[in-house]
Here is the input.
Amino acid sequence: MSQYQEKATVVRVEQFSEKNFRLTLDCPLIAESAKPGQFVMIRTAVGKDPLLRRPFSIHQTSKAGRIQIYFKVVGRGTHILAHVKIGEELSVFGPLGKGFRLNALAPAVIVGGGLGIAPMLFLAKENSRLKKNCDNDLIILGAREKNEIAPLLDDFRQFGLKLLTATDDGSLGHHGFVTEVLQSVELPAGCIVYACGPEPMMAGVNEICRFQGIPCQVSVESVMACGMGACLGCSRPAKKGTYTHVCLNGPVYDAEELIWNI
Ligand SMILES: Cc1cc2nc3c(=O)[nH]c(=O)nc-3n(C[C@H](O)[C@H](O)[C@H](O)COP(=O)(O)OP(=O)(O)OC[C@H]3O[C@@H](n4cnc5c(N)ncnc54)[C@H](O)[C@@H]3O)c2cc1C
Ligand code: FES
Here is the structure.
């Protein structure tokens, strides 16, 4: 699969809450070849601080050659990204990793928690492109509070999936976790669950799916220095005493391939 290093022009900066931002970047080669669940490595600074690129899921692509990332400010790199200006250029490398494997014949149940919502818009879009209709499909989005989800809801609604929400503080949808929603609804027969979010959430989703015999794909995170298999810094324990490198073998896995410690 082809990968590109592009000088991407910032075309839009959206701020959704104090720390949540969405950037639209013009990088046609990456936009054209990206698949849902893949990620890009972005150099956030011109100088050496921070030295390493930062990984971000591809939130959405457009036919106009643009990609979006949806991110939260947690440190130096994301702080710099939150303050970029329209017209600035960022070095973007990608698309990287293995994405979700969608099945056009099976109902999709998409579960995104926190920043794990980021890759799910691209997945929902591709899912609707592959199917005549998405009447049997479901998406469950969860976050700490309303502001982290509400600005994205119209984007998700355009794809025709049934949409449910959950927030930790009860400000939108179910008061509690997305896993509680997943457990309480009747899932469509023959569905596949696609999940991305914090580790405890995905461990919970895996448990529910295992119990009900539902196939589940998860997108996991790890600390990444290179994003392309060179540093081996992204290793994670997998089944049968082996290790997997998330940047190469993931970030999307069948949940049953991984070891869940929580
Ligand atoms: C495949 C992949 C996709 C990702 N997609 C997104 C996304 O769509 N949106 C988004 O907001 N974030 C995403 N992340 C996480 C994002 O890469 C980190 O938040 C970012 O690198 C932090 O950079 P920083 O310089 O701001 O913070 P740093 O100063 O590097 O770190 C700040 C804090 O965040 C922790 N941290 C840094 N990277 C990670 C990580 N990968 N996992 C867990 N904790 C981390 C550090 O331990 C530290 O406590 C993704 C990570 C991976 C591996
Ligand atoms: S991040 Fe370097 S090998 Fe995966």
Observations:
- The helical segments are 28-33, 76-82, 120-130, 153-157, 178-184, 199-212, 246-249.
- The first helix runs from residue 28 to 33.
- Residues 108-219 form a domain with the Rossmann fold fold (CATH 3.40.50.80).
- The chain has seven helices and 16 strands.
